[in-house]
Amino acid sequence: MKALPPHADLIWADDGQPFSSQFGDLYFSRESGLEESRHVFLQHNQLPARWRQLTTDAHFCIAETGFGTGLNFLSAWQLWDDCAPPGARLHFVSCEKFPLRMTDLQRALALWPELANWSGQLLAQYSDLTTGWQHFVLADGRVTLTLLIGDVFDTLPELDARVDAWFLDGFAPAKNPQMWQPALYQQMARLSRPGSTVATFTSAGDVRRGLQAAGFSMNRVKGYGRKREMLAGLFTAPAELPWQAPWYARPAVHQGTREVMIIGAGLAGCSTALALARRGWQVQLIERHASPAQEASGNPQGILYCKLSPHQPPLSRFIQSAYAFSLRQLHALLPQSEDTWAACGVLQLSKDDNEAQRYQALAQQGYPTDFLRGVSAAEASAIAGLKVSRGGLYFAGGGWVNPPSLCHALLQPPNIHLLKQHEALALTYDDGQWTAQDGRGQSIASAACVVVCSAADSARFEQTRHLPLKAIRGQITHLPASESSQALRTVLCSEGYVSPARHGEHHLGASFRFEWQDMQPTGEENQSNLALLADLSGELTEALALSQQDPAALKARAALRCTSPDYLPLIGPVVQHEPFIRDYAVLGKDASKQLDTPAPWYPGLFVNCAHGSRGLISCPLSGELLAALLNNEPLPLPRQLVQAVHPSRFLLRQLVRGQRTRGSDTAAS
Ligand SMILES: Cc1cc2nc3c(=O)[nH]c(=O)nc-3n(C[C@H](O)[C@H](O)[C@H](O)COP(=O)(O)OP(=O)(O)OC[C@H]3O[C@@H](n4cnc5c(N)ncnc54)[C@H](O)[C@@H]3O)c2cc1C
Ligand SMILES: C[S@@+](CC[C@H](N)C(=O)[O-])C[C@H]1O[C@@H](n2cnc3c(N)ncnc32)[C@H](O)[C@@H]1O
User: Fold this and answer.
1) pLDDT tens, 251-303?
2) Is residue 418 situated within a structural domain?
3) 269 lines ligand 1 (CB under 6 A)
4) Does any domain span residue 197?
5) pTM recorded for the entire structure
6) Number of Cβ atoms within 10 Å of the Cβ of 664
7) Confidence band (pLDDT; 50, 70, 90) for 312?
8) Peptide bond into 189 cis (omega under 30)
9) Per-chain mean pLDDT for the chain
10) How many Å lie between the centroid of ligand 1 and the Cα of residue 663?
11) Which of 218, 242, 266 is the last residue of a domain?
12) Which one of 73, 96, 166, 167 would you pick to mutate in the ligand 2 pocket, going by the greatest count of ligand atoms within 8 A of its CB?
């Protein structure tokens, strides 16, 4: 799969309107694109009337084919601000095969000064996009945009959502016949709620009949301006959903008061807390230390390290979407400073010729250059401000982050209540409520839902013991900056990493120790970190006069990473282990068996952990995914990736391999 989608190839007409050279069609009506958008999509989905009737905690989902210039999205958002109650949330999902480049989007949206308030917020987060799903949280969570970049026939089948209104756009059927196909209408039917509405500018008979065959009652109504007719309709068919593996289906959504307990205030817990608080949940965040971010998330500088593979396995695709989201969230939440974070760029230097070839293959996949580009050793040295040993990849948008500052920013909503210095040692469930208990059996807090974000300790509860988590100790070394080492402008990484100075110190990481669990820093790990530095840049090693330093005397910090056997995180609902093994045992004999037995979920129990060495990238999107699951919203990732991070995947793999193990044995899978 190419990383770069082909971008929209625009011709700008004399009157300033964008025209697609790929489709030979206009993006919107010459009379007024904005008025057409309002007439066709907003009025004929009855959005003003429907939105005025929403309750304050309502959620409304629009799905669109063809994001284009985002005009429909922005006009819908403007109307939402006008009509919807303050606590309600809009989720706009849009498919786009040829996303506009940033410069084209700026130019197209400048046509609508009336929308400047909304387009400015979109443009502040937009950049040239890579393939995959791109998730945007706008207006402090009141509006969410998920762009499914790729062909509608590849992306829509991967969507897990319940749609309230469809904007069926996508150039005239005569100009884009490949898209206006029964397979599209069937996907729309799969995703529609009963009573979901649809509107489209076209009145083509094939489209009307195709939508009717898929279960929509369609009417011809007056079109915009000189167009005589368009189509509007309602989804009226009984839902005939294709079989879905019950072990990956969504658990029933909690219906009562939105109260949740989160156990662990590291990056995973704080990201989950923000995502749920934005959706109106009352969050009780239980943390055993006196403040958040004291364990793995407590390093002074962590790196936004986006390690990709040219073959785009699930891990790479997850990282790519998560990295882009993490950067958007950082820019939106946390002003850059020496305390907080710096988008100073990350140089990923190849460690040997094989890796150099892999990086070259990646650089040739055509990523936007401000996302990643290949650099020679000389170019890398010029970027870094110091001579480095090899070339590699440059991620211009990356940088370093102080994770405790990020956690602090994530915990700002007033509906997040931090319960510090409480260690949850057991979870009990009674009468629809979970209670977290401490070591003396005293209750710390209760709520209908729980998200366990306790890194490797997530598997300490009776209910979660089957999760195959592993703790890997790591140590970073603090290096006092010298005058010449301050020349380092970007993060350097390869086997290890070193950051530009923050408050007079560089940070150098990191060791991997599988056999120890204690937190006492060692001179031996400082020594191995120094060897990693020598590999990155001889000039920096000299600038820091490291040959004169005693490794044992250097300041250092150790903590535990939490990983899973396939290095992807665990994000999602938790099943009851024994009933799961019993109910699905037959998969050990026939892995393709289509069982209907619902998965034995623990009601309201979720986990978010195993972020390994890249929590700064993966935690923000993991919070959005969990909150979407708890709130019954469209998921921000394709179904394949949701399954790739699903906590039950290891139990399933064991069943399919005919193994039956539990607890620590599971970690061997
Ligand atoms: C040396 C080192 C270097 C790293 N470098 C980078 C890097 O450069 N870039 C990057 O992206 N990532 C890096 N990481 C990884 C990153 O730090 C983690 O992925 C991330 O911090 C994981 O966040 P978390 O919330 O899952 O875990 P943690 O930060 O460990 O948070 C878990 C929290 O749960 C609390 N807790 C646990 N059990 C309980 C309980 N029973 N009751 C109450 N509270 C509990 C803990 O006190 C802790 O606060 C590094 C990690 C290490 C160790
Ligand atoms: C008329 S434009 C949409 C205008 C847009 N809704 C707006 O508000 O600006 C049609 C869009 O559909 C996209 N498109 C066409 N065929 C597609 C397909 N098969 N999959 C995904 N997007 C497609 C085009 O790239 C184009 O951006």
Assistant:
1) 998 888 999 999 999 999 999 999 999 999 999 999 999 999 999 999 999 99
2) yes
3) yes
4) yes
5) 0.96
6) 12
7) confident
8) no
9) 94
10) 22
11) 242
12) 96
